[in-house]
């Protein structure tokens, strides 16, 4: 998850990050897993990425500091495919069961959802 500014840093560093409250979720990410980045300002899903590290805390401690926030739960990635971003209207049906409010959804995707996205 990112805004426009942190999205650029994610791509530059090849590092995805979430707040410390999401560390348990990020620690479930294992090298080789498929990943996507959701940019919440434009409501777009970017990918397709692959974890090249296990999720952990503070791979790059100074990452995202320019945003004024901390995202220490991190995972390194490589880009598998260069794809156009999907708008939320394009991927909403694939992850419908993840929505817990009209504009908020759980991050984790099933294998079936990954293939649908």
UniProtKB/TrEMBL annotation:
It comes from the Eukaryota. It comes from Salix udensis. Pfam families: Dev_Cell_Death (PF10539). Residues 1-117 form the DCD domain. This is DCD domain-containing protein. InterPro entries: Dev_and_cell_death_domain.
């Amino acid at each position: 998850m990112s805004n426009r500014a942190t999205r650029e840093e994610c791509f530059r560093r090849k590092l995805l990050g979430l707040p410390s409250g999401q560390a348990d979720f990020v620690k479930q990410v294992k090298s080789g897993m498929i990943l996507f980045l959701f940019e919440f300002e434009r409501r777009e899903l970017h990918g397709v990425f692959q974890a090249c590290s296990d999720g952990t805390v503070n791979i790059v401690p100074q990452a995202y500091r320019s945003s004024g926030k901390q995202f220490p739960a991190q995972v390194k990635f490589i880009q598998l495919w260069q794809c156009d971003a999907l708008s939320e209207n394009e991927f909403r049906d694939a992850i419908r069961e993840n929505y817990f409010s009209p504009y908020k959804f759980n991050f984790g995707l099933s294998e079936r959802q990954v293939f649908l996205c």
